[in-house]
């Protein structure tokens, strides 16, 4: 069927007047025939089975029964009138009930004639009843060609109130298929259909809207899910390939003095296999002619820093500069310190540039950057200021940034012919299937192994009523020289409340851990969102230096700080935190040699989801496993923020349930594009056509961002 037919405005479908058209547009975004065609049912009612009244279960949901009405009466009660019919089959009797349209129904119901009824049953006082059943005379039912599995389409209250019921939508769909006399054209290449034994587009559409059996429906759904995921992946993979072929980068062909000397003589520990693998992947990228655009995922503590350093050394060995950008001053300082220490034996020039760098120092840095004598620059967003001009930036590493753009937009490499290679590091584990969709246009490296000898962080859940015991535990740990985090939730909408919670908590902790009086006394830091950045830094630094034993904070400490001596993480109102947040918070401890603890405090009132989150946290410390649970609980849109949800706005596939199909779709998308990058071959004609349509009629396949 030609695409012009499918682009026909929905107003032109028989049965759709201006009124219905405007409702369909407003409520379901159905503007064209194609939009209607792509309105896939949410679920199906099984009309292949007939139940007997005598064997109905209280748990039965929607059932279909053959029987007769024996008599009808109207019951008038305080709450209103209702029409009740007694319905019997050879096994028993039940009631059919109507609250609306009673007059019309009463006049039309036939006594002692076989009906097929369908609907939800209720069970009350030993009798089953069915409110507002769908009914059809058995005679007519047997003659109708309605399909056995009845689709239930997405709807809204407004639609059903305006008479656009499921039955009406179903009718419109039938009309659409009638008008599309020649059927719908194929959108996948033939060899692919054969290899994967997929049903044709036409058959799939027919069976998804008018399924003849469970089996045919399943095949239809599989085919359509595959197609949806295939085209998303095709788009992402293509973007990646185009990027690689169009955006040239400096090939770092040499592995030289800095890298070799560090790798052979100065590695402070043996690299894990995952670190080795990832470094190899990065080396390959850097050695090619394309600009690297790589996401490095590794759980907290998995050892991303050393990977960053080795990558930077490759840049240096090829005569280029490198930079590392972190989201906060504290993180930049920590990176700077650890890199300077690691590079102790190498003759490198490394500087730190942040908002608080003094003017004279700043000037010197600018100068050394431009004349090329500075090798590595570490810092905050201050790196992106206009005055910061590298002589030849070859590699930009961004830490803890979910999505970049920053590096691409910046003027970092204004003198370069090519943009620098970009490596983004994130400690937020993203389930693989989700990463494929959201970051499908990037290359991804994963460090999925922690360095050996890491002690597990003991994680427990405690109710608020056990607070005194928890305080005692804190006191014991501090007496051993440890430090403690106590974190309060911060949720934007109720900032005032959160602030009050935090301050109440702080006061009770000060009472419990007094700063003066008889020994032992305690020093407490507090950090929250309402403080000036400079004050925050000051308090953080006191804690980092060990001048305070307790850090009371809102989630501002979430990202990246490293205080190895802190061994206890208390999370207050833990039920209000998301899983990934809890995981990040827990990652703040367990960084030193001591046994560390994470205590999740909650009230007794817990939702089912909150229970799952707490159970998951106490069961596992595997960031990817936690991310999978998080994905199941929250759904992909929430997990990635609204920004990316467009990519995930799927019509028929489900990114969680259909992850296997997604993997297959991605591998085939890669296969198709590798073999035929321009989609020019005969067999890829349908792909090329569909692909062109996707870009042209964006509103239709709006799941492609
Ligand atoms: P993250 O991925 O969170 O940035 P880091 O790079 O800060 O992790 O590493 C966490 C800690 O583990 C550091 O103290 C680092 O020195 C250490 N580390 C990293 N890799 C290894 C390894 N292969 N063997 C032993 N310790 C390692
Ligand atoms: Mg780090």
Task: Break the fold down into its secondary structure elements and pairings.
Layout: H1 3-6, H2 18-28, H3 33-37, E1 43-46, E2 62-77, E3 80-89, E4 92-98, H4 102-108, E5 115-120, E6 122-124, E7 127-131, E8 134-137, H5 138-143, E9 149-152, H6 157-161, H7 166-179, H8 190-196, H9 201-209, H10 214-246, H11 257-266, H12 273-287, E10 293-298, H13 304-317, E11 321-325, H14 329-342, E12 350-353, H15 359-371, E13 376-379, E14 393-399, H16 406-409, E15 421-426, H17 432-438, E16 443-447, E17 458-463, H18 467-479, E18 483-487, H19 495-512, E19 524-527, H20 533-544, E20 550-553, E21 566-571, H21 579-586, E22 597-602, H22 608-619, H23 623-640, H24 642-645, H25 659-675, H26 685-696
Helix pairs in contact: 9-10, 10-25, 11-13, 12-13, 22-23
């Amino acid at each position: 069927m030609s695409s012009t037919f499918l682009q026909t405005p929905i107003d032109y479908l028989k049965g759709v007047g201006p009124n219905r058209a405007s409702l369909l547009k407003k409520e379901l975004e159905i503007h064209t025939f194609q939009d209607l065609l792509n309105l896939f049912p949410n679920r199906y009612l099984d009309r292949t089975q007939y139940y007997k009244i005598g064997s109905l279960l209280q748990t039965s949901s929607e059932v279909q029964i053959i029987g007769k009405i024996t008599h009808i009466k109207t019951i008038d009660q305080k709450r209103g009138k209702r029409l009740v019919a007694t319905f019997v089959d050879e096994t028993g009797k039940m009631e059919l009930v109507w609250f609306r349209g009673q007059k019309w129904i009463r006049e039309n119901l036939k006594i002692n004639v076989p009906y097929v009824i369908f609907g939800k049953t209720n069970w009350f006082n030993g009798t089953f009843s069915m409110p507002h059943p769908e009914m059809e005379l058995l005679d007519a039912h047997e003659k109708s060609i309605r399909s056995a599995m009845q689709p239930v389409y997405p709807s809204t209250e407004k639609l059903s109130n305006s008479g656009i019921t499921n039955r009406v939508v179903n009718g419109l769909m039938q009309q659409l298929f009638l008008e599309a006399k020649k059927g719908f054209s194929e959108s996948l290449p033939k060899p692919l259909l054969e290899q994967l034994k997929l049903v044709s587009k036409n058959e799939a559409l027919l069976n998804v809207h008018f399924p003849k059996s469970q089996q045919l429906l399943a095949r239809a759904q599989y085919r359509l899910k595959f197609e949806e995921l295939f085209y998303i992946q095709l788009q992402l993979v293509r973007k990646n390939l185009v990027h690689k072929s169009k955006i040239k980068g400096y090939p770092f062909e040499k592995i030289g003095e800095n890298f070799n000397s560090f790798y052979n003589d100065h590695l402070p520990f043996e690299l894990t296999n995952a670190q080795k693998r990832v470094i190899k992947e990065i080396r390959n990228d850097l050695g090619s002619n394309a600009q690297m655009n790589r996401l490095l995922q590794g759980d907290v503590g998995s050892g991303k820093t050393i990977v960053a350093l080795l990558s930077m050394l490759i840049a240096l060995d090829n005569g280029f500069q490198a930079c590392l950008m972190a989201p906060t001053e504290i993180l930049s300082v920590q990176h700077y310190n650890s890199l300077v220490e690691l590079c102790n034996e190498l003759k490198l020039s490394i500087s730190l540039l942040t908002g608080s760098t003094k003017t004279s120092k700043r000037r010197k840095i600018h100068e050394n950057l431009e004349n090329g004598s500075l090798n590595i620059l570490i810092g905050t967003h201050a790196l992106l200021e206009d005055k910061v001009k590298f002589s030849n930036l070859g590699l930009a590493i961004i830490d803890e940034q979910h999505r970049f753009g920053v590096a691409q937009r910046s003027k970092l490499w204004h003198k370069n012919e090519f943009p620098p290679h970009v490596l983004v590091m994130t400690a937020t584990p993203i389930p693989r299937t989700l990463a494929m969709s959201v970051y499908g246009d990037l290359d991804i490296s994963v460090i999925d192994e922690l360095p050996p000898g890491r002690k597990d962080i003991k994680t427990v859940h405690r109710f608020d009523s056990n607070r005194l015991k928890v305080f005692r535990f804190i006191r014991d740990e501090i007496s051993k020289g440890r430090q403690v985090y106590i974190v309060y939730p911060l949720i934007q909408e109720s900032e005032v409340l959160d602030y009050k919670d935090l301050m109440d908590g702080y006061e009770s902790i000060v009472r419990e851990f007094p700063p003066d009086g008889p020994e032992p006394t305690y020093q407490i830091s507090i950090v929250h969102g309402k403080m000036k950045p400079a004050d925050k830094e000051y308090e953080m630094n006191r804690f980092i230096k060990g001048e305070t034993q307790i850090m009371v904070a809102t989630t501002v400490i979430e990202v990246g700080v490293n205080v190895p001596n802190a061994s206890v993480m208390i999370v207050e109102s833990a039920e209000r935190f998301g899983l990934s947040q809890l995981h990040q918070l827990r990652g703040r401890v367990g960084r030193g040699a001591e046994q560390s603890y994470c205590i999740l405090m909650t009230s007794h009132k817990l939702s089912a989801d909150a229970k799952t989150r707490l159970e998951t946290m106490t069961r596992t410390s595997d960031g990817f496993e936690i991310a999978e649970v998080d994905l199941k609980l929250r759904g992909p849109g929430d997990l990635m923020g609204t920004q990316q949800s467009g990519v995930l706005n799927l019509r028929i596939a489900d990114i969680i349930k259909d992850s296997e199909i997604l993997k297959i779709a991605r591998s085939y998308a890669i296969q198709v594009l590798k073999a035929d990058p321009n989609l020019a071959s005969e067999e890829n004609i349908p792909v090329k056509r569909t692909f062109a349509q996707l870009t042209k009629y964006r509103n239709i396949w709006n799941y492609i961002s």
